[in-house]
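User: Hey, my collaborator sent me this sequence without any context and asked if I could get a structure. I don't really work with proteins. Can you help?
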Amino acid sequence: MMLLLLLLLLMMMIWRYNDALMMMMMMLLLMMMMMRRRMMMMMMMMMMMMLLMMMMMMMMMRRRRRRRRRIMLMMMRRRRMYLLVVIMDDSGRYDFDDNDDLDDYQL
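Assistant: No problem. I've predicted the 3D structure and written it out in structure-token form, which is a compact way to encode the shape of the chain:
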């Protein structure tokens, strides 16, 4: 996990990319929220999706003009915020005391 975070930091330094800081903040948030064993896979998938989105954006930005770049940035930022809200909403469903004999949905 820490390796992935370091990789993101390195990418941020290579491409001086203004949304990368926001992505780093989101990664830290996700790491804090998903330390449970059951959530580990979900977190990894999330991180991979973020990486993919970032790569796609970089590819598109190299080809297009500045006007379109700004529109793309806005669209991606909105989508990313929505994704974060969904994850936060989902993580609230689980109880965080470690009673592993009970299922998560039981009271």
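In plain terms: The chain has a mean pLDDT of 61. You can pass these tokens on to your collaborator as they are.
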